[in-house]
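How it folds
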Amino acid sequence: MFNRLGRITTHHPWAVLSTWALITALGLMASFWGFGHGDLFSRLAVTAPSTPGSQSDRVAQLIADEDTGPVTTVVVSGIPIQHNLPDLVAFTAEHRSNFSEIDHVVSVIDPFITSPAHPVPDLTDPHNQALLSTSGDGFAVVITAEKQTSDADAKATKTKIDEAISTFTAALTEKFPDAQVNAISQALVSDGIIALIQSDLVRGETIGLPVALVLMLVVFGGLVAAGLPLGGAVISILLGMAGIWASTFFMDFNSFILNVVSIIGLALSIDYGLLVVSRCREEFAIELTRRGLPADGSSLPDRASTHTLVRAAVERTVRTAGRTVFFSALTIACSISGLLVFDSPTLRGITIGGMLVTILAVLTSISVVPALITLLGVVLIRPSRTSRVPGLAQLTRLVGDSSAEEGFFSSVARWVHRIPWAMILLIGMMLAVMASPLSGLRMRSSFIEYLPDDSPALIAHYQLQDGYPALATPQIIVAAKVNQAQSAQLVQYLTAQDHVAHVLPAERPLADGMTEFGVHMDTSDPTGAEVSSLVHELRDHDPGYEILVGGAAAMQEDFAASLADGAPLALLVVAVAVFILLFLMTGSLAIPLKALIVNSLSLMASLGATVWIFEGGHLGMTPTNGLETYIVAIMIAFGFGLSMDYEVFLVARMKEYWDAGLPNDRAVAQGLQRSGRIITSAAAIIVAVFIGFISGQMIAIKQIGVALAIMVTVDATLVRLLLVPATMEVLGRWNWWAPAPLRWIHDRFRIEH
């Protein structure tokens, strides 16, 4: 397959590139225009992770079925009510119609509604008190629209409400200069998160791509070679977004998946592109040397001979490095596929997006990049003009991709071989210390916390929670099938629980004869330990009738429980799949087993360091109450995949030398020498890309970026350079051993590298 692919890319490079250009253009149109069906951002969902069939999911569905329509709450603060009552009555009477006259708006309520019989509002009325701040300096306006089946009508109504809020705000602040106005609705929260995701995406790529280009310029010593992996990355990300757009017609995708796809797409495309370009430059040097020409390309044969040389080098690159990156993509896909075990639409969407961009990254690296190299071969062979930049040539020789048979990395391998057991113990202890914070890991899912602190919707949310008890979102929602007497008993029971401030039965009934009860607690963290504890207590309580416990904390507990239930099977699926793939690649039992153990240690150390950074507020990060639950699952899946990526790069080269007849210690040293610079260079570039995403505002993406940056750093240094050579020295020839029946299986089904 790879022989044929190599011939196609070298004999028909323009056809290959034209095909990709056409597909990319269509993908761009789909993502940003949508062919009349909405662009990608408009088709993404913004929801907290849920567990289908769980109690929290059933409660959420019961409430959603009874919703009359979207509600927008405008929260006004900074106006002493009693001192300004007449002016407020007149002002709201004048501007209330701005909302009520909007099509599809069914009600507008505020505490200052009057009638001929009651020209002065009764602020002691419970309905009016619910709309007045407990501090006495604010009020709320609640606007309810009817539920609409047309997305276009719903968006039009929301736009008109937003415009009316802006008009209301401008007029209010003109009359009351100290007034502040914030608004919240499900749509406003969703729009705020989408806007944040877009800005973080632009910021991450604006920082990450130029930094990656500069670092690859240092690695390759030339601008053209440096740009090739990034070209593949851009195509992979754009087509990944288009693939997600197409998939939204069949399932829901959470909005933050775009950032995840960008992070993984950049990481893998840089990894694969770097390996392919580096291997091709190595093949160029071999071909030139074989023809008696300088390996640095300073002297070339005639044009026809040079073209033949380029074709031969590119075809061998696709046949060797192409197989390696393809196999690496298989192992990453297997790692990501473990998320499919979990019964979670959020994780299922992330899995599809991750596997899609992984496939695209490997396809571009073994087709687009080789086709470009075929066309630009002479430019890549000859010394680049950028090498004339003072210091760049020396820096490239020091850390670049080209290396001799002997050098820094082979020296490191020989040094490690002299003290393998000491190195294993030392690195093992370091990884254990890094992993120790995992004992205090707390996982949480707080949807509203995705918004930045200065978001008007988040400010309005906290204002309602602190100053409007009747409008505040309850920490726990109980749905129970009760009669009137049982309802009173349940309220009494709920009120008696620790940290419960008050319980508000809903005025409307739910489906299936259920009644809704809002449990408001005196805790500041809506998904904290006190709330989670009460969720478990209520679920353990058996009152003799059906009772369901929902709300944000319950949803968090259900999601965490589903992860815990599915984790053993997910880990087993990943371990078996990766073990089989590594065995088919190496013909060894020891290497797959060692890879699973070592990569797991590396992953645990990285997760532990991430917990220490975020829960402790270290290294300039704002302290959090835990890691996002779904983020932990993503970290494990993608982190393990990236770790396996480097394992494949390293072991593939070692296996080449072992198959060539070198003894184990020399095969390890030569393999590390040839792949070490690529692994460390790729790791440095990827960490720089991750830092670009860490600079954003969305905490979930920060956590992913930090965790993967730590994992890549640890894996490319402590693990690949020190721990792996030490373990391979200890195992010796057993690295490559397998019993006869398994050797027969390997010979029959081997994956060439």
User: Anything to note?
Assistant: The mean pLDDT is 84. The chain has three domains: 2-36+191-441+558-749, 71-184, 475-550. The chain is about 65% helix and 5% strand. Residues 391 and 564 are 53 Å apart (CA to CA).
